[in-house]
Amino acid sequence: MSRLNVLNGRILSVAGFSFLFAYILSFLFEGQVLYSLLGLHEAEASGYILAAVVAHFAGLFSCGYLVKSPIAAKYTMLGGMGLCLIATIPFFFVSSTLWAIGLIVSGYASGCAVAAWGYFIKAFTPKNQRIKSCADVLIYSNIIMIAVNVVAINLSLIIGLTLSMLCLVAGMAFIWMLPTDTKNGWHEETESKPRSDIKKPLMLLCLFIFIITINSGLMYQVINPAFEHLTGLVSWYWAVPYIVALAVMRNLPVKAKRSRILYIGMAMIMGAFISFMLLGRNASDYLVVDTLMLGACGIFDLFWWSIIGEMLNYTENPVKVFGIGLSANVFGVLCGGVVGMAVTSIQLSSAEVAVIALTVVCVTLIMLPPLNSQLVMLLKNHAYLTAYDRMSETQQTDIIRQTKTLEELTGREQEVLEHILSGKSNREIARTLFISESTVKTHIRNIFSKYDVASRAELISTLLKNQSDS
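RESULT FIELD:
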């Protein structure tokens, strides 16, 4: 029954989040419904868009400092979507100050709701399946967005806006049915102990996300306006390459070298901007540029969404990690948008825009090797812990005994080491051994020194290397 409840929890959380994200993509976050409404009422688009994106970033970044329990996460998602629903109502009427207020309120509320979903992907999706859950929500939300866009552009803008709001209603219904306690299927196996090793790779990942998504901001402000005359084609084809890339990445074999595909994604971004520079502005040119650009976006989005999803096992507050990780994406789009506005205002040529974009790609190429190294150390640490936990006590003892140290461990250090390898935090080790946490930290520093390592990940890697070599 527990497995069935977990499966139902995954389905409900993916469905609820997909509808929430479809609203964000079709309306709030530079969506075609919002752009069309602003154009219809001849409103200044840049100010409204900037307000919505900044508010969304603030919601993503701050939510983890406010929401620290599953029940709080559930009601944050419900409350956030409810606020978005109310704040979108003024857009059925002529433009006014209420539009700006509505975008700020819905931007912040939706950011909090997205961050709060971190609890539910951790709870209801096993760690080795999170890439599929992330792919699913991105694919489904974009399919729904395409449907809303087609209706809004080709049938009725008001009906399109109504469908965007109905997405919120559907999302709230699915999230309302989610359990938030172990009796109703809360997936305890995904609850992990905090790891101090998460900070450096998370910071490096956020920096990588921020830099690479500057090109997404350029896309919104420079590439998209150049093809705005192709209204019908853009309304349905815009996200198709993105969805295809996500589907391909989702269904790759487990052992596939996904890191190599990131280089393909970078080449696609370069190809998109070079094509934009060399080609014209007709339908066939749009198909080339959009296919390359959005295909690359699909590759990178699933990369960092799934990596952030895996990182949730290393924190007691998944809302904070999930929100901060995705806020780096929004901040990159925001900064890229500002660069795009500047590029447009001074009327740089497409060749100069391409040079800016290629410079961004070169910076991310330099960052990729150290980022990969940090992520491998972090995520393999977790895999090693699982492998160690499955060994018999004799095998565990043999590994520790066979590994050479610069100086012999004391009896207490050996006890601390065993608890480290069992996945316990410093606080839990202190509680188990009836010593203070500062004493545990002293023992750990001594252990690191005797094994000539700098972190838990490196320590575990060193120890288990003996298992693989024997």
